[in-house]
Amino acid sequence: MKTLEAVIEMGSTGIRLMVCEDSPGGSWVVIDNAELPVALGWDVFTLNTVSRETLLQRLRILNRFKEQLKGWGIDDQHVTVIATSALREASNRDTVLDRIQVKTGFKVKVIDGIEENRLMYIAVLEALRDDLPEIKQSNSVILEIGGGSTEIMLLERGEMAAVHSLRLGTVIIEQHIKSMLGSQHDARHFLKDFIKNAGVNLNTEFNLKKVQHFITIGHEARIAAQYVGEQIGTRTWKITRENFAEFANEIQQFSPEECQVKFQVPYSDAKSLGVALFTYKLFMDLTDAQEIIVSGTTLREGLIISKVLPPQGLQKEFESQIVASAVNIGRKYKYDEEHAQYVKRIALQIYDTMNEELGLDSHARILLEVSAILHDVGIFIRSTDHQLHSQYIISNSDIFGLNKDSINIVALVACYHRGSMPTITDVKFHALPRTDRMIVLKLAAILRIADSLDRSHSQRINKLEMEFSGDSFNIKTVGTHDTKLERLAVSEKGNLFEAVFGYNILIS
What we know:
- This protein is of the alpha/beta class.
- The chain folds into three domains: about 5-110, ATPase, nucleotide binding domain (Nucleotidyltransferase, domain 5), CATH 3.30.420; about 115-305, Nucleotidyltransferase, domain 5 (2-Layer Sandwich); about 310-505, Hypothetical protein af1432 (Orthogonal Bundle).
- It has helices at about 40-45, 50-70, 85-90, 95-105, 115-130, 170-180, 185-205, 220-230, 240-250, 255-265, 265-285, 300-310, 310-330, 335-355, 355-360, 360-375, 385-395, 405-415, 425-430, 435-450, 485-495, 495-500; strands spanning about 5-10, 15-20, 30-35, 80-85, 110, 140-145, 150-155, 160-165, 215, 230-235, 235-240, 290-295, 465-470, 470-475, 505.
- Strand 2 and strand 3 form a beta hairpin.
- The protein is globular, with a radius of gyration of 25 Å.
- The chain starts with a strand and ends with a strand.
């Protein structure tokens, strides 16, 4: 049976609607698109707030889209409304969200930069599955320049090496120029310095000169593709490095009004065209890629794909990229990879043995896996109290596929992998919702045991068997091992496990 799904995206420069029809098995087709401009970004990035006039304009547009959805017969459970960087940074965000819900009935989900990256990755991966299948084994950059942020993903041989959300967008750049009473020349100088510094930081994680595919999404890149590119798929183009640079430089000579007439685009898009293309060019100059791949996909399609495609293959792909992202963060901080992988394997074995006892979903298992990989990264700063440094590093890292709430959980699990248990003075822990606090406690309890079983960091125990017996959780070491050190560690760190689950831990 076919169903209709709708996505509304509230961005920095406009509100966009997409309606799709999907069938069982994951096939889908876009049947309606609409876009209306509204300058939310100009408010937020200038005044840090959404003005009354902009809010009223947004409400009118959303109610218009609501009527359009009624015409399609789409009910609220099949409508997803998201907002990106502009609303995310507004000081009156909560008031705006409340007004939208009261006046339109739409409940808006404000997504962070990491979630934007996740949706972008889904959309690009699906769009290029047939047009550029080698992306899954190559070194690639995936880049989108929006109104308020620039989203970057770096893939090494198809695996996520790093992911970043930079506070750099076309609206922010324009505001920077206005505040300094600058010219387009000043804008280009500012961009060159910013991106040069960004390149230095990115090169610490990934050698940009080894990039084989430079992939972009965004309407500005699509304009360039339609004029100087070669179409290689239904909604995929490639542009040679030279042709793209020449087109980007040519656009710098046009006024927004000239761009509007020449390319038949709304004024808001014409205004950002020169800045966006110049920014893409500067990022491309950091690499030796000989062509730019332009995908006509959007975040909205990423949301649709994540909802309608069969979850098994997609979920497995995501989990592998989340883990790859965590591993690359660990390598950045010179972690003990063999110890981390060993602790991860034991932690997941405990988790799976206790699955019915835990009352957690599959996402919690991924959080445990990431926590186990990164629990010791704080040693990079200092060995003493390294759990606190691990918490700091994780809290301030971008992990592909995990939003800020999930990253905070991972950081706290790593923090409690050793040392004292959570207390009333632990502000970050007690600031979590009760359900999240329980996730932290359960995962930290498991991680403490797993870490104890490699106290020597030598992976001496090759195989473990685990089972429940009465009020005990028995861990049997298979083979001949001297486990005195591990027994001592479990006796020191098993208190949280016993407090959370009510089982004594026995090692034999």
